[in-house]
Amino acid sequence: MTAPEWIPVGALGDAFLPENNCLPPVSDLAGRTLNLHFENGWVIEHAFTDGERLTWRITAGEGEASQGEERYVATRPREDIYFVDFIKSGERATSVSLVLDLKRRSFIAVIGQLPTAEESMTSFITRIAQGKELTAVDATFLRGSIDVPLTPDQPVPEVTRDLLGKRVEYIYSPFEKYEHIYLNDHYYAWRCLAGSEKGLADTDACHYYKIADNLYLFVWREKIVPTLGIVMVDLNAMKTTGKIVGYENNDFGKLRNFTVGARARVISVIPAE
Q: One Pfam family this chain carries (predicted)?
């Protein structure tokens, strides 16, 4: 029997493209300027030039006066809630994903960075000896308020345990189907039921935030093929929207950052630990 193949993220992106269940991109933010007040003291102005381009500028905090222009993709999982994603062109292998809740004037940002070849090829035993995680994919989470200074009573996304114990099937297209089991606060298990990674399975590091009732931000960081996944899981609509980013090939060169979306089905629920 032939063993399943661990494919690069570029090949995964190609497989996810046909007849996918992604939410359509929206241009609702075009012409708007949002000032994001981060909990670390940053204030970053995001001006959405049109439905595909934005400029950002740090107006307060570390790196003040830094700025850039990026191409972004936005989707709207619920009214007044947006998922905005872009590659940060001025930094190595870095992406920024924003969940913007315009009604509550709150947001969470996920700043992800993929490892260098040297970091990725460090053995698990060496990483354990160095006190590091098994995955070399990094993600930083920062929350804050939109267009108003952040105050202690401002509602912001919080870490949640709501998904723990759930076993959920995700159908990304007629060809790609996966299953997740949310094990505990730090890890989940996945397996590919159909598609380009059929037969593969693993347990990886993950993070959970609650955005609204039955709406969650779920982030995973893979350790075999350096991969960062960021999705919003809507258990009312039973849909997801988000992205996967990794290296196009196994040469640690060009990035592949692609939109994903799936139809979801809760298969079973067991009591969380």
A: MoaF
Q: How confident is the model at residue 65 (pLDDT cuts 50, 70, 90)?
A: confident
Which one-letter DSSP state was computed for residue 41? S
Q: What is the DSSP-derived secondary structure letter of residue 126? A: H
pLDDT digits (tens, 9 = 90+) for 215-224: 999 999 999 9
- CB distance 83 to 241 below 8 Å: yes
Residues 6+ apart with CB under 8 A from 250: 8, 225
Contact in structure between 7 and 196 (CB atoms under 8 Å): yes
Contacts of 63 (CB under 8 A, 6+ apart): 42
User: Helix or strand or coil: residue 72?
Assistant: strand
pTM higher than the cut 0.85: yes
Read off the pLDDT of each residue in 119-132 and give the average, rounded to a whole number.
97
Query: What's the burial of 153, exposed, middle or buried (CB within 10 Å: 0-12/13-18/19+)?
Result: exposed
Q: Is the pLDDT of residue 272 over 80?
A: no
